[in-house]
Amino acid sequence: MKVVILSKAHVVGVYQRKLEELARLPDVELLALTPPYWREARVGVQRLERRHTEGYQLAVVPMLFNGHHHVHLYRRLWRHFRAFRPDIVHVDDEPYNLVTLHAALLARLAGARVVFFTWQNLDRGYPPPFPQVEWSNYRLAAAAVAGNQEAVEVLRHKGYRGPVEVIPQFGVDPEFYAPGPAHTDKPPLIGFVGRLVPEKGADDLLAAFARMRQPSRLDLVGTGSEQARLDAQAGRLGLRDRVRFRGAVPPAEMPEIYRAFDLLVVPSRTRSNWKEQFGRVIIEAMACGVPVIGSDSGEIPHVIGAPELVFPEGNIDALARLLDELAADPARRARLGEWARRRVLAEFTQASVARRYYELYRRVLGQGEPGDEGRWVSGRIDGDSRA
Question: What are 219's strand-pairing partners?
Fold first, then answer.
């Protein structure tokens, strides 16, 4: 099985671990194509890191219109496709983006089958030519991968009728994100990790924290346009001596940050143009043995996997009650942390995610297990709707 994966996300070294895991699976010959850097609005330039590069080819491909999600393109794709002669070309990008159509047309010309990826969990329309690009990619693709449950519904509503499976884009490395020693300090430390922007709901967390009856502390990790307003809110609520704004933390230091928390809170709020698509910090914290409380925005409940740890988005009283319950019960926090770690090991490691992509590729090539065919043509394997 010769697979090409085209992804700008693989400039981030930690994400390359999935490629190594995929390349270890039987009969896989893997070529990963990625740009020399990716320019992300409000974040900056991420240059290619070569961190996990064993067992497969990682080739750098020049990019046109770098930083423009909808219109960027790769140069010299045909040269790579013609030389490698792939069976599968996995375009790790949205179906309404030009890069997906360009790669899909060249892949089909090379005789390969095409898989695309989508996070799109809001049914949004786009101006021409993007609807035409999207529809063309639906017709060219042999299968789709959705990063969350609602993205499947969006695909179907927009007219995609091919096979689709819900698989995260990336998992976590359980050796990097691993539990630390048990906490003996009190009061418990509650954590928030993410951009300090309105949709991430840090203001709701501050308001709920102020209503807690149990002694506790709060760390907010991240930066963003709301930081000054949140700092002022903490002052008005009389929380300055119990709340720390930690700022941005390098990825390499995040496991230690998570291990210091007794709880992580993901209080995201849906907006007209945004809904939580996955919540990667959830699986990172859970891998470190940290229980996670989250709102019911988008994919958060499915990722957490425990309804009792989910509250209605924007419901400050419900969040405060959950925080008080867990702050008062260290034994329950410990049990939930152990359960969270087991869930990640079963569902969300780079190895388990790679295995699910491998099985999808095999089904696309007609190499699935006997009896899979009837379930696969329905669009998703029965009983396997996890994200």
Answer: 191, 244
